[in-house]
Amino acid sequence: LCLDLAWSGLQAVTFYTGLLDKEMVTHWQLAFSMRELVRTNRISGLAYEPAWLAGQLATVFFPFLFAAVLTNFRLTSRRWLEPALLVLSTLVLLATYSRGGLLITVGVTSLVTLLFGRDVLRGMWNWFISGFRNKHLPSFLVRLSIVIVLIGVITGAAIFLGQKNFFRRLWETDAETLTEYLVDINAGARGAYTVAAMGAFQASPLTGVGLGGSGFYIYQNLPDWSLTTVPEIAKQLNPSSRLYPNPKNLYARLLAETGLVGFVLYLAFQFNILGEMLSLHKRKETWVRFAMVAGVFAWLTIALYNFTQDSLTTPNLWTVPGILVGLAVHQTHKEVS
Predict the structure, then answer these.
(1) In angstroms, rounded to a whole number, what is the distance separating the alpha carbons of residues 116 and 172?
(2) End-to-end CA, the chain
(3) Strand (E) or helix (H) holding 252
(4) What 3-state class would DSSP assign to 41?
(5) DSSP for 112-146?
(6) Residue 98 class from Cβ within 10 Å (0-12 exposed, 13-18 middle, 19+ buried)?
(7) Residue 45: which residues within 8 A CB-CB, separation 6 or more?
């Protein structure tokens, strides 16, 4: 994480300050990566592209960092370390301009806070209100300053993200239908691939069309609106194109390739993982609540992240769940012995 943040910081200095020559930093990156700097000035860190960096932050690092702050549990003696890393990771996540990564992280953070941080929220609210009830000027000014800072941070983040046209289209659009909106925000291809994959599922709903076979059914099931309004699909329909399409949605791909049988088995497997994570709650050690919150955060993030990708081989899908399931099984074996 520290290496990722450091290289992301170097990219940010290159993009936004002009202190470093972009071509020179590109050569530095090509010394260890096959990908040059992103031409649109989006931070990619050590990942192949910005969206991948956002996915790694959301599914691997944010769960532990946010859980450490929410539960007040620290892995080191430096109590400032996890909050500092969380702030830096948030800044890098913003600089990726990944719409999916940002929306998923914000949504899961809010949900996990409501599920596991109600005592923290209640304490913060009581502290905040007490400053106004006491009619003590310094306390009032402190709380007013916090409100101003929060408004400034939210406004600054919105202005920063709004600099990119493809991000600003989320709220600036003249679309009258859902399909028009998807095309306007450059998500038309993903939506069309998902619809086409569901067409393959309808052809064989019980067992699917076979692993890896959904791509053979996508072109013939593409919705009509995508044939003329989505440039990416128009290029793929070119007779000289040798590209093999994917559904871009893991759940749609599972339904298309394994049918209801495989899809139900996958859901059962995922909920079993969630159950193993929640089983840690029975333990009395101080680290248990931290581990459980981190696990649930990662599980929810991955569940939403799978709507934007269709591969089971992405390592960050299994890193945190594997660690937490291993801890749960180890604790169970200790209880049995």
Answers:
(1) 35
(2) 37
(3) helix 250-279
(4) coil
(5) HHHHH-HHHHHHHHHHHHHHHHTT-HHHHHHHHHH
(6) buried
(7) 4, 5, 7, 8, 11, 53, 92
Tokens of 215: 């791509």
Query: Hey, is 150 helix, strand or coil?
Result: helix
Q: What tokens appear for 256 in the block?
A: 């298309």
How many other C-beta atoms lie within 10 A of the C-beta of residue 75?
11
pLDDT in tens, 269-279: 999 999 988 88
**Each residue of 281-303: pLDDT tens digit?**
777 777 888 989 999 999 999 99
- One-letter amino acid identity for 87? V
7-21, 51-65, 177-191, 228-242: which has the minimum mean pLDDT? 228-242
What's the pLDDT at 335? 65
From CA 209, how far away is CA 154, in angstroms rounded? 46
Q: pTM of this prediction?
A: 0.88
DSSP conformational letter for 216: H
Residues, the chain, total? 337
